[in-house]
Amino acid sequence: MDYKKPLPGIDIWSRPFWAGTRAGELRMQCCGDCRTIFFPPGPVCPSCQSRNLTWETLSGRGEVLSWVIFHQLYFKGFADEQPYNVALVKLDEGPLMYTNVVGTDNDKLAIGMRLEAVFEPATDEITMPRFRAVQP
Amino acid sequence: MTTEHLRDQTCIVGVGTTAYGNFPETDANGLGADALSMALADAGLTLGDVDGIIVNRIPSYERFSEMIGLNNPTFGAQLQASGRMSGASVMMAAMALASGQAKCIALVYGNNGRSVREYYGGGDSLWAPWGFTSPGARHAMMTRRHMHLYGTRSDQLAHVAKTFRDHAALNPAAVMRKPFTIDDHQNSRFITEPLRLLDYCLINDGGVAFIMTTADRARDMKKKPVYISGMAREDTYENSSTYTSPDDFWFGALDRMAGRIYREAGIGREAVDGLMIYDNFTPTVVFSLEGMGFCKRGEGGPFVEEWHLALGSGLPTNTNGGHLSESYMQGWALIAEAVRQLRGECGERQIKDAEVIQYICATPISNSILFRN
């Protein structure tokens, strides 16, 4: 067990998300009434308050809205990659999430860059979704 | 929301501020108690005159009241330990006083974040698995987006930091007083890029307290009251997991607040003599100026670059040095400075003939208060 980065805290609402990443899919909640797809997961559709929610498999694609480079080390598990990037990504289906962009040098990151999800096993239970530039 | 009926109904009649620094020999309770004693003396009152209490960042309203010997108040509250609650505390006190729930309220803040090595980052959170953490990083993410949309530059943010440091040089209470240049800012190390060390506020220990009462009661007090002429608050929880909606920069909330606070206070924006802006990070100042309408949307960078925020200019801002150079007292010391400016107590850093000072805090609970003398 040599994965040193922080692991997610899984609760009853997020468990299907992490089951999805373990299966190599980005799954998020979709409202059966207004069709809003949202993240992080919760008990109610934040757009129309419906409880009629299902889990959908997303395209795994999105684009960079912004990004930062962490020069200050807040987590020992990231020490080997310091300075490391975190991007704010808008998924094609609408939700926002923070993620790391892998396979691209930090100085080549750009707003509007197209990304696709990749799935990196961390432990037996957890697979981390990160993103890379869409491959031509 | 309208608070026009509260115009000039309540006031701050006492302020107290401890020294700011590293004080491991005391704690938030001790610092708060010291600030409260100073505020009472400033108002010419004693604890026996107080019948309401609001504490912020002090661990327990109950233990604090027991500790200082405050008995039988008719109003009390404890607000969460985040900076958005300083303005919220003053507004809550004004509403409680105006509705007759108390006659004289003590507002007490104590912070020992420096001596206990409070670290604003790390720990468990939704985004920790991706290494995303800290208020600074959230603002860095907003800043990159603002740069992309409007062409804002780091050296423009440097003007905010330098201006406030120049003000701190005139304030004996400020923790950092040595002036620096734009180049010094540009050469300071990145914390979370694009924000640098000199874009970040200063964590310190300290206490601040206010005494508030009604305008009627304030007439006979020791010092000239500072009136709460207008107040506005707008909360933004949409997309709060990623802090705020990507292109918002709190503009929506502040623009709605600007749409009513001046009218309700009966004071125009052009009558504001100085600003106290919640400067947890330099970009927050830019967002606040744009949202409140002191410059056009997207033009905050060029606006601060023209030195408008400097003492002697049209809109002197954070004359105490702000969170960036005096001390991060989560808005409390900025409000104390507003009161002292309106009393004419600021010595070398006094805004000449100051009659109206506006406090602005751009956060998930955005809030603003118009003070006048």
Brief characterization of the structure:
The complex is a heterodimer of chains A (136) and B (373). Chain A has one helix and nine strands; from the N terminus they run αβββββββββ. Chain A is mainly beta and 136 residues long.
What key attributes describe this structure?
heterodimer; A: mainly beta; 1 helix; 9 strands; 6% helix; B: alpha/beta; Peroxisomal Thiolase, Chain A, domain 1; 9-stranded mixed sheet; two-stranded antiparallel ribbon; 34% helix; 19% strand
Topology at a glance:
The complex is a heterodimer of chains A (136) and B (373).
Chain A: H1 15-22, E1 27-31, E2 37-38, E3 53-57, E4 61-70, E5 84-91, E6 96-99, E7 101-102, E8 114-121, E9 127-133
Parallel strand pairs in A: 7-9
Antiparallel strand pairs in A: 1-2, 1-3, 4-5, 4-8, 5-6, 8-9
Chain B: E1 10-17, H1 28-43, E2 52-56, H2 61-68, E3 75-79, H3 85-98, E4 104-112, H4 135-150, H5 154-168, H6 182-187, E5 190-193, E6 195-196, E7 205-214, H7 215-218, E8 226-235, H8 251-265, E9 274-277, H9 282-291, H10 300-305, H11 322-325, H12 332-343, E10 356-361, E11 365-372
Helix pairs in contact in B: 5-9, 8-9
